[in-house]
Amino acid sequence: MKLNEVLKNIHPIKIVGDAEVEITGVNIDSRRIKAGHLFIAMKGTQVDGHQFIAKAIELGGKSILCEDLPEPVGGVTYVQVASTEDAAGKVATLFYGDPSRKLKLVGVTGTNGKTTIATLLYNMFRKFGHKVGLLSTVCNYVDDQPIPADHTTPDPIELNELLAKMVEAGCEYAFMECSSHAIHQKRIGGLKFAGGLFTNLTRDHLDYHKTFENYRNAKKAFFDGLPKDAFAITNADDKNGMVMVQNTKATVKTYSTRTLADFRARILECHFEGMYLEIDGREVGVQFIGKFNVSNILAVYGAAVMLGKKPEDILLVLSTLHSVSGRLEPIRSPEGFTAIVDYAHTPDALANVLNAIHEVLDGKGHVITVCGAGGNRDKGKRPLMAQEAVRQSDRVIITSDNPRFEEPQAIINDMLAGLNDQQLRKVISIVDRKEAIRTACMMAKRGDVVLVAGKGHEDYQEIKGVKHHFDDKEVLHDIFKA
Ligand SMILES: CC(=O)N[C@H]1[C@@H](OP(=O)(O)OP(=O)(O)OC[C@H]2O[C@@H](n3ccc(=O)[nH]c3=O)[C@H](O)[C@@H]2O)O[C@H](CO)[C@@H](O)[C@@H]1O[C@H](C)C(=O)N[C@@H](C)C(=O)N[C@H](CCC(=O)O)C(=O)O
Ligand SMILES: Nc1ncnc2c1ncn2[C@@H]1O[C@H](COP(=O)(O)OP(=O)(O)OP(=O)(O)O)[C@@H](O)[C@H]1O
Ligand SMILES: N[C@H](CCC[C@H](N)C(=O)O)C(=O)O
Ligand SMILES: [Mg+2]
């Protein structure tokens, strides 16, 4: 492909050299440059990619997209733009054949529920007989082929490469999570969305966005960017639900478990095995628990309706779907208590999961919670998470999540600092996560619930840059076998 073909959707300030040069690849990371690639130099949060331009040329890069023109090297073409961050997605999309226009792409954003909703939509549309793609925190899929994910939303190059693979595999639909980081860094730039979904907004990632307002605006930018022929489905029960869609060109639809909305549901009955719901006047049994999952299910239902599926067919498939890996996943112990592995890693998610557990327990058992908080992430949420855990549990064991480059005990101390003397009486702290889970299981009696929160599907614990194998579910199964 020729360089000028991938520049069609951007407005270069200046081009130095041959714009007709053939390019064999596009990359934002100099370390991945191969002969003939276009290197896009981006100013990141850690380093300025411009300092790797020489390295990219040394590795065979034949063209450079940048904001600041360096001293030119013969035989290399330079394209200057105002923002490489803005250009990267638009360029990558054209290089990969504009894949998002060749399938129906639906994005999900919000603080909690993205993985759940995107995965349920993926499972549902496969059950409808379509080939489907999924981009999510847990794993990416090109039809039935899993491709490991290390971000919630991949970088613009990997993202378009994956979408192109989906198109090539014959996928008609793709469902993806759009994290606030990704929207803010324009990783999704240049993509054409058929629809967007909003879940909810509570505090997270303030380490990155600094203020709640910036965080909200990052999410809102996704809806601002949707085209006229897309749909925007928002949660009318969330304070920020209508804010999200106030400037969108897309067709707005709402869902609610409480007020008037386009898509509505209420709980008729609930057990640990699932719930009976009434959705838009029809009854359906689902294999999920928790009020927040009713919202997630409604978002899925609404998206399927907007994608042209019939309500009765949607409900039939919904009743066959089950919980997403590490999201409210129950494991029964031989002693007769229930362990629940969940990915709740924000104060709000913890509160919701504990609520869901109490809805089912209905006062007939104790709740023992094991939780921690991730290192090198939002510190402000730590004391709040401890408070939420204590508020709705009989005992709490505070432990390590992914300490990353922080001291595990220091993170635990930040959590404990949120508690008063009376609250502290319910709490013990054990740095070693395996020991913490084991201790919780020793405390539990028949009918109790042990909630193991924070890591969900993760099969590692990240300590000082190294990912050590660790899997909450595996630890529980080992304890139950012994
Ligand atoms: C804070 C953050 O979001 N950082 C992301 C960002 O990196 P950055 O801008 O900091 O990059 P940088 O390290 O400063 O480098 C600048 C540029 O120089 C390039 N470079 C760098 C070194 C080199 O030798 N050569 C080279 O070319 C880099 O490729 C980059 O283009 O852009 C990169 C490419 O897209 C991401 O991989 C990187 O994710 C980091 C690893 C990360 O941990 N991100 C997390 C916080 C994240 O994105 N999480 C969200 C949401 C999670 C959630 O909602 O739960 C996610 O979508 O996963
Ligand atoms: N609609 C919801 N409202 C509140 N909490 C939710 C909701 N859905 C899921 N949760 C809780 O949040 C946790 C994370 O859910 P999920 O992985 O679906 O969210 P996510 O938005 O993908 O998170 P991440 O930002 O880490 O990718 C779940 O384990 C559950 O505890
Ligand atoms: N994708 C999120 C998930 C965090 C999950 C939790 N286990 C942690 O490590 O904090 C993040 O990177 O902030
Ligand atoms: Mg996710």
Describe the structure.
The structure is a single chain. Strand 3 (37-40), helix 2 and strand 4 (63-66) form a beta-alpha-beta unit. Helices cover 33% and strands 22% of the residues. It folds into three domains: 3-95, MurE/MurF, N-terminal domain (Udp-n-acetylmuramoylalanyl-d-glutamate--2,6- Diaminopimelate Ligase, Chain: A, domain 1); 99-318, Mur-like, catalytic domain (UDP-N-acetylmuramoyl-L-alanine:D-glutamate ligase, 3-Layer(aba) Sandwich); 329-481, Alpha-Beta Complex (Protein-Tyrosine Phosphatase, Chain A). The model has no long low-confidence stretch (mean pLDDT 96). Helix 13 (381-391) crosses helix 14. The chain has an eleven-stranded mixed sheet with strand order 9-8-7-10-6-11-12-13-14-15-16, with helices on both faces. It has a six-stranded mixed sheet with strand order 17-18-22-19-20-21, sandwiched between helices. The protein contains 17 helices and 24 strands. By secondary structure, the protein is α/β, with parallel strands linked by helices. It is globular. Bound molecules: ligand UAG, adenosine-5'-triphosphate, 2,6-diaminopimelic acid and magnesium ion (MG). Ligand UAG binds at residues 28-31, 42, 44-47, 49, 52, 151-153, 155, 179, 181-182, 185, 187, 208.
